[in-house]
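Entry 14. Structure prediction run on the chain below.
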Amino acid sequence: MEKEKLLFYNEYEEFYEMAEKSIAFQKFCCDSFGQDFSQDGFSDIEQIDMILPYIPTKEDIHILDVGCGNGKMLGYLQKKTGAFIHGFDYSQKAITNARGRFTQKSDFREGIIGEIEYPDNSFDIVVSMDTMYFSKDMNAFVGQIKRWLKPDGILFVGYQEGELVPRTFDENTTELAKALKNNGMNFEARNITKQTYELLKKKRDAAIIHKAEFENEGHIQWFDMLMMQTEWVEEPYRQFEKVMARYIYVARK
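Output returned:
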């Protein structure tokens, strides 16, 4: 498949070029999310730290990040656990940056969800933060991940509804939940929609604080994007949750 035809491919190429150079964006990420992982979404440090208890405390741990971007989140997990980190992303610029940044105990590949392949029983934990819904066949991709996991492996997912996929009733009715059930994976889910709404406010405030820096860098279009992404803060939470939802899923092989 030609990557240029995939959803947001060209935009993400531009995004990761900007994220590598922009001090304003790096400051924005720290102020919004508590750490700069070049986030384009809602994965703050609290959500990333939720992954840590599921990473085994033993030798030779392998973590895969689905849609790893420039690898900064994986680098954080590696620093905390000493794990061997694996990541794939369809963005050439993101993977180039990841390979340059993390050279020890790491494997970064260009790849597309549903097309890339890894050996069975490879990973202790597979992480997907805001990427599962890029799959054209969620059921098939969950089955693929299940094969990749070791017998006691964990799938950890940050999953949002309301933008790329429509809002369903609750965490048990999402396309991801259906795919997990179809593949025989038991899961638990936590609703963090309220925290997401509060995070939107932090993102908007941080963007405004750093507006002049974005402008001075010639990156005012990214400030405008951040303001557009956070327009929901102008609505009360009860309206937001009718349209948007965010969950953390932990599924076991």
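The first helix runs from residue 9 to 21.
Filed with the rest of this week's runs.
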